[in-house]
Sequence to fold (227 residues):
Amino acid sequence: AQSVTQLGSHVSVSEGALVLLRCNYSSSVPPYLFWYVQYPNQGLQLLLKYTSAATLVKGINGFEAEFKKSETSFHLTKPSAHMSDAAEYFCASYYGGSQGNLIFGKGTKLSVKP
Amino acid sequence: DGGITQSPKYLFRKEGQNVTLSCEQNLNHDAMYWYRQDPGQGLRLIYYSQIVNDFQKGDIAEGYSVSREKKESFPLTVTSAQKNPTAFYLCASSPSGKLDTQYFGPGTRLTVL
Fold:
């Protein structure tokens, strides 16, 4: 079965430090890939998406992600963490033929220390 | 403003009772989805609908039912057959249901006592 794996259920960084959240997909066919953010008791907000147009994707709030086919990865980065970045982040993917089925990783909770 | 609304935000029910969660969108999207979220589990698809009067089971449809009588509405009923209904439920919609971005509502937290 196709899957999305997020390494690290909890990541902690200091304010101003680099944020790196890892996501790997399991498919030989590059899928469509998404990163969402969720603040406590709220819905998910789209950060960015990859649809094969460009391997480096820029999103909202200073986040970006790079698609690496050789590593089957789509890691999310931000050069300098802000306190407001503290939230849970989800990587998700459509695979070929799964028209309705957006497959989610289990999420990574980001904490930002002052 | 266009968007997805879910009501209520918090819902409490006694064990054995059916309960219906509301989801409405004014984005003119064809496709709508219901997900269940449990801590550490990510989101799991319950049902989805790509067009009015049609819907498909997702990965965890047992104990749930839906209807899609109007384009803007996709209510979810949690039946007494659902063995562990306490969870956070998220509704989403997308323009066509074919590899589109899904947009999410604010969620309903259901607690069964």
Observations:
- Chain B touches chain A through 29 residues (CB under 8 Å).
- The mean pLDDT of chain B is 93.
